[in-house]
Specification:
This protein is of the alpha+beta class. The protein has three helices and ten strands, in the order αββββββαββββα. The protein is globular.
Length: 143
């Protein structure tokens, strides 16, 4: 998409999406769009999150029927395989239905969760490591 985590501004993100023919909405300071193709998938819901005016996270998600879970599991394993190939030096945390890769620049997560009877959510998240660390630290400082 040509957007850099930790650097792209909200106006840049909005302009990029509109130039690609996407409809965009703002919600709680974030930008949302639908039906965006990325990583070989068409994601029904995409959220671009900002901190201090900079893009720090992109969350790609899609609702799926729990009856399609075996198919979704194949998709998740395919995306994990691509991430392992793309980021071979990343540290990896592997939980039952959530795999996270991270280094000191990027955090990438693939996950699946049941949200209600018969419905699950499959997601891919990319985040800027430094910004996430700052957010976590500022949250700790508040307490």
């Amino acid at each position: 998409m040509g957007l850099t985590l930790g650097e792209a501004t909200k106006p840049e993100v909005k302009r990029t999406l509109i130039n690609k023919g996407m409809s965009v909405e703002e919600y709680k300071g974030h930008i949302t769009t639908n039906d965006l193709t990325f990583g070989g998938e068409t994601w029904s819901n995409v959220v671009f999150k900002f901190y201090k005016g900079k893009l720090y996270s992109i969350i790609f998600g899609m609702e799926v029927s729990s009856s399609n879970k075996p198919s979704v599991k194949k998709d998740i394993l395919r995306v994990i395989s691509i991430l392992k190939e793309k980021y071979p030096k990343f540290l990896m945390i592997d939980e039952e239905e959530n795999v996270t890769f991270y280094d000191l620049k990027t955090v990438a997560s693939v996950s699946y969760a049941n949200v209600s009877e018969g419905v699950g959510v499959y997601g891919l998240t990319y985040s800027d490591y430094a910004t996430l660390s700052n957010i976590i630290q500022s949250t700790k400082d508040e307490f």
